[in-house]
Amino acid sequence: MKSLLPALAAVWLCAAGPLYPQVKVTSVEGITEYRLANGLRVLLFPDASKPTVTVNITYLVGSKNEKYGETGMAHLLEHLVFKGTSKRADIWKELKDHGAEFNGSTWYERTNYFETLAATDENLRWALDMEADRMVHSRIAQKDLDSEMTVVRNEFESGENNPFRVLLQRVMASAFVWHAYGKDTIGARSDIEHVPIDHLQAFYRRYYQPDNAMLVVAGKFDEKTTLAWIQESLGAIPRPARKLDREYTTEPVQDGERATTVRRVGDVQLIDVLYHVPAGTHPDFPAVEMLGAILADTPSGRLYKALVDSKKASSVGDYEYQLSEPGIILFTAELRKENSLGDARKIMLDTIQSVVTEPPSADEVSRARTKLLKQIELALNDSAGIGVQLSEWEAMGDWRMFFLYRDRIEKVTAEDVKRVAAAYFKEANRTVGTFIPIEKPDRAEIPATPDVQAALKDYKGRPPVVAGEAFDPSPANIDARTTRATLPNGMKLALLSKKTRGNEVSALIDLHFGDVKSLLGRSATASLAGDMLMRGTRLHTRQQIEDEFDKLKAQVNVNGSATGAYARIQTTRPNLAAVLKLVAEILRQPAFPDSEFPQVMEAQLTNLESIRSEPQFQAMNELQRHLIRYPKEDVRAVKTPDEEIVEFKQVTLAGVRKFYEEFYGASNAEMAVVGDFDTAEIRKLAGDLFGDWKSPRPYERVVMDYQKVEPANRSIKSPDKANAMFAAGEQLNLNDEDPDFPALVIGNFMIGGNPASRLMNRWRHKEGWSYGGNSFLNAGTKANDGIFMAYAILNPQNVAKVEAAFQEEMDKVLKDGFPASEVAESKKAWLQERILGRSRDASLAQKLAGNEFFGRTMAWDAALEKKLDAVTPEQIRDAVRRWLDPKAMSIVKAGDFK
């Protein structure tokens, strides 16, 4: 096709001369910044402990830079940059072919793109070349806008289904009269639908330039070689001649409480309370974030105690918008329909005001500080994640603010928090759901945006986090490095010790109990028993447990369901033993306190009420209920929210305690640990903690019986919902030992199992009907309980087209199969996805535990990969024909189809 950007193409070709030199700017805690001659900022963050590399590029442009009539343009452009360049016809496909995990995102002041790939020279060079190419050569063509506009509109409509999102949009619009922060990044529907292509092209040419960008490379790579590749690709782009204008609109001081009310179909009530606060780089902001935790944390927060403990609300939350200019702090409360909105609003406002009249104690401040610092420290252990996170700090003024902000948090005192609360938590500075006139305004003066460079002058940071080993994630090496054992009670252990960044370690414990007969009619009781586990033990209260995990720098989740319980753990080597001891206490000595049971019940009921009118849930629930048929009392039954509400309301705390005593034990359990730990120590500790804990009743795995059902095609009306859902599926009499399984895996991968699949290419990339869609195939392990499903999120008016396209694409596959080139590319991408999954310690721990449960080793995975690599296009076509029949599939659509 003809290039839409000939001038830029010519400039690119002229830039193929001598490479520009780079200048080393600074190095902070293992991250080194270089500045190229064309203005590009480059951050290199080597971490040899992970076999992956992440490339993230951030452009300092977002919805704040849009003009009236062009809202949503930055986000639209984020989508169009994936559509291709003058020499790359399909970037989605290239990303898939390289097995990348990737995404792009847009916020008020930045747009970023990242891809995480297996750490090979070929992958890294490709990613750098691709980002250089689409920085200045993206097509930004009218035909791409025509299809992608409807995808973005579909995403907009999805947000319109969300009561929280809709209310937040209205509150932000009320809080900001002039500043662009008052406009949601998704934009106005009319602007999304009508923005001219030449406006998008001009926006792209202006902001997508090296002097307005920051590149981060994080993971396993050679610094010197990578810097040379960056020079050859992104460094060859000339610095543009244009000069970016400074955004100068400043939001005036608010002069009175503001109000907004939204009336829409929904199942829960919401309250938002918003205050203006300083810029994210201002010294007051750490105290602002601590105020959010002090008020809204679970279960220690004042709002939680005042609203949730009293059953006036089912949940509370806080959000701090940390931006380059003065932002906001937002408090939220969710209520069931029968709760009093007026009572909750008064309690909420009075409780927020209490931090001024009754300033936070030293203990409250210390607890908030510990939680925030834990989150920062754990983030620093993830080189790929921190590389993307630095985008936000660069948009605020400089990436190094991340570290200075951490230092500032450590120094915040109770007096600082008291002062900041008094300065900004004023009636005239808030926006809520009711307008109350006042006689004399009490205005909050928001400080000017600080000089970031002055704050960072001579800042050096701390020594880099301890690096880990270069670990080979192949199945053979994983098996060779894994120690396996069985405790006296039957619990199985899988322990894989390796050096990790920051001495990080991931662990999990899975308990299995019951059988179909013993669990009859006890699903709700079992669920509530699991929810109560972390609400207190015989030795520690819920708050003490939460505080102890924060001190131990641990992320822990312990819960249970009808057929088992689990613990998921992320911590560091020095704290692992103490964390495991506390987890064992939670599992073995739960107190089931009377005071916590009403809260757990309230949360369950609120969740069920909140989803019953949502099209996505309605469609999937109805499809599963049609395909999976058991009596309501059976633990395998798929129930409606109303049926579950009835069941939950019949549960008593005495019943929950009885269920625990009858079922909980570790005779049928697995424990897997992956990361930095001493194998002998943890093996002995596991025996001490769990080796004598026997299950009180026999266990037999609950499996789904294959049920052949007649296909159905149903529509569900969801009034006043802008987004709809299409779902199709069938049960399969299939297990993962079947000879056809490898062929079906790669067949599903090409049908709908990856971002560049047949269904996604048709629904999203070609037609623009759906923001998101997928297909998945599950085959039973040692049981014939397989299932195939496909789904799409869409505008209700496109439902017939989406359904017809699904049938057409499936018919094409059954008739013609897949060409050899597509099969080869997909095999490569599928394998790289597997490598990425095994490179994550938490995922690997889950895999090892599953292997212990099913009596397998990683050799099974290696064999599957070998079998899959050997299947031919003809074998894939024949397997799909044998197992997937569109005419036998049931279809459910949910939405407002009027």
Question: How would the blueprint of this fold be written?
Answer:
Blueprint: H1 6-14, E1 22-28, E2 31-36, E3 41-46, E4 52-59, H2 73-80, H3 91-97, E5 101-106, E6 111-118, H4 121-136, H5 142-160, H6 163-175, H7 189-194, H8 197-207, E7 213-219, H9 223-232, E8 258-259, E9 268-277, H10 285-296, H11 302-308, E10 315-321, E11 327-336, H12 341-357, H13 362-380, H14 383-396, H15 401-411, H16 414-424, E12 430-432, H17 452-455, H18 475-481, E13 482-486, E14 492-497, E15 504-512, H19 523-532, H20 542-551, E16 555-560, E17 564-572, H21 576-588, H22 597-611, H23 615-627, H24 641-649, H25 653-663, E18 669-675, H26 679-690, E19 713-717, E20 724-732, H27 741-751, H28 758-766, E21 770-778, E22 786-794, H29 799-816, H30 820-838, H31 841-854, H32 858-870, H33 873-883, E23 890-895
Helix pairs in contact: 2-5, 10-13, 10-16, 11-12, 18-32, 19-25, 21-26, 22-24, 27-32, 27-33, 28-29, 29-33
